[in-house]
Amino acid sequence: MSDLSSSRKRYNSWSDKIFDTCNIIFMLVLVVVTLYPFINMFALSFNNANDSIRGGIYLWPREWTWENYAYIFNESSIYHATLISAFRTILGTIISVFCTAMLAYTVSRQEFVLRKFVTIAFVFTMYFSGGLIPTYLLIRELDLINSFWVYIFPGIIGVFNMIVVRSFIEGLPDGILESAKIDGAGEFTTFVRIVLPLTVPALATISLFVAVGQWNSWFDVFLYNSSRLDLSTLQYELMKILSTSNTAANSMTAADQFAAGQSGQTMVTPTSIRATMTIIASLPIIMVYPFLQKYFVKGMTVGGVKG
């Protein structure tokens, strides 16, 4: 009984209370710093563009409007581009995660004599790239220009993702894989039926990485598929809209902008368009993340647990 009371007394000491208070304050500040930019973008996206020029928009729109979203969604190409982005994200994530997991399983096997060489060869690409022009020439020689598959094949293997999955596989009990081989399972059967189900946290983690990269990518569209409107993605179309709004804003003088605001004429600005684009582009990923959060945390901490 005395031990229990002494432990409670230690917990209720001033040093513990000060630590808890500082910890709570630090976490609250971190939450505010993390959420404020997104909340500010949300407020700007729903605020009247003419009014936004005055400034002073922080956490809540001063003059609510849907004009910024209407301006973007009035572009007929947006809807088809969204479907292309969704399709490349889903297909690219599935293929990339499966191929990355196969490579990770291969280099995690002690009996694979070239595992160190293959690992070093892939890690080397993280520090040195061939450059933009050689990459473009390679893509052209592979006949991937003006093709949907240029979104999938060049980034099919992520080295960092491979390292994450390999670390997870190396932490699995050896007895599970050995028992599968004793039962007559081949390497591919062991990989599909044993390894993949056990590495779901790691696979969910790299799936989020790959999906975000695929969804946000637009530069590959600009380089390889800019002449194919039917293969344009949402991010590329949003980039073109922003470029158009920047050009229009630069062509208007301050007096023109003031006159438009005074007359009540609806006007979009690069700031309002950029904020609206941020919300549109971020919303799908934000909706997916809660379903992967528990796997994401477990997958990222596996290396620390193993160590």
From TrEMBL:
- Its domain of life? Bacteria
Query: Topology versus the membrane, per the UniProt entry?
Result: Multi-pass membrane protein
A Pfam family assignment: BPD_transp_1
- Transmembrane spans: 21-39, 78-105, 117-136, 148-169, 190-212, 273-292
Q: Where in the cell is it found?
A: Cell membrane
Keywords assigned by UniProt?
Cell membrane, Membrane, Transmembrane, Transmembrane helix, Transport
Taxonomic source organism: Paenibacillus sambharensis
User: Keyword Glycoprotein: yes or no?
Assistant: no
Which named protein is this? Carbohydrate ABC transporter permease
Q: Does the keyword Transmembrane helix apply?
A: yes
